[in-house]
UniProtKB/TrEMBL annotation:
<dbReference type="InterPro" id="IPR036779">
    <property type="entry name" value="LysM_dom_sf"/>
</dbReference>
<dbReference type="InterPro" id="IPR018392">
    <property type="entry name" value="LysM"/>
</dbReference>
<dbReference type="InterPro" id="IPR042047">
    <property type="entry name" value="SleB_dom1"/>
</dbReference>
<feature type="domain" description="LysM">
    <location>
        <begin position="25"/>
        <end position="68"/>
    </location>
</feature>
<feature type="domain" description="LysM">
    <location>
        <begin position="73"/>
        <end position="116"/>
    </location>
</feature>
<dbReference type="Pfam" id="PF01476">
    <property type="entry name" value="LysM"/>
</dbReference>
<protein>
    <submittedName>
        <fullName>Cell wall hydrolase SleB</fullName>
    </submittedName>
</protein>
<keyword id="KW-0378">Hydrolase</keyword>
<dbReference type="InterPro" id="IPR011105">
    <property type="entry name" value="Cell_wall_hydrolase_SleB"/>
</dbReference>
<dbReference type="Pfam" id="PF07486">
    <property type="entry name" value="Hydrolase_2"/>
</dbReference>
<dbReference type="GO" id="GO:0008932">
    <property type="term" value="F:lytic endotransglycosylase activity"/>
</dbReference>
<dbReference type="GO" id="GO:0016787">
    <property type="term" value="F:hydrolase activity"/>
</dbReference>
Amino acid sequence: MRRITVLLIVTLIMVTVTGSAYAGTSYKVRFGDNLYKISRLMGVNHQEIMAANDLGTTVIYPGQVLKIPSQSRVYEVKKGDTLFRIARKYKISLNELMSVNGMNNTLIFPGQNLIIPGKKRNMTEPAMGNKVNTYISQEDIELLARLIHAEARGEDDIGKLAVGAVILNRLASDRFPDSIREIIYQKTNGVYQFTPVSNGTINMEPSEAAIKAAQEAIEGKDPTSGALFFYNPKTSTDNWIRTLPVTRVIGNHVFAK
């Protein structure tokens, strides 16, 4: 089925909220957006966006206007300006400037307002709910989402969350490495532990559902009852993993400790 992408014009303006200390940028959500992508683009943690907008979940919808508590600014295009010169002036990439303004070409005109993204921060957040003495970066969230998508793209939301929970359970265990990246790329006897790393499917773009599952796993949600392993009994050839105590069967996967 052919995927149809609808591009909406992004409205990004500087605003001040009466009666509060908030002064930041407003972002109009487009089709295909999610909080993770917006936070990466605007240089702000997704939890800060949730707090600024009183969001109880990460669910957003096209046309919704979000307050972004960032250092972004608005630039008014002057005669003789080009996108390339503006990008170079503010030390950002041309693609980044076009992306944050929802542009599919480089045409600009005097008087036009362009959003200039704030300086990207090293955005990290604690692994809440798993009592892990570490921090999880936005890059870790993306990597986890890609693994979830590759391993469980045929599963429902609970099945996707379960795969993510296994990684977070490993992060909390002293039997495994101390970062999500090291866990996902860990090898046993020279072989990657996760098939998507071996066959390259981990490099696929994660779905919205996979990103949501990654975020929920980091928040501490775990439908697996603390599982550290999972496998598909129809395809797995590992006899050892079948000897482990089973905690749950979710969709096509068996979860075990």
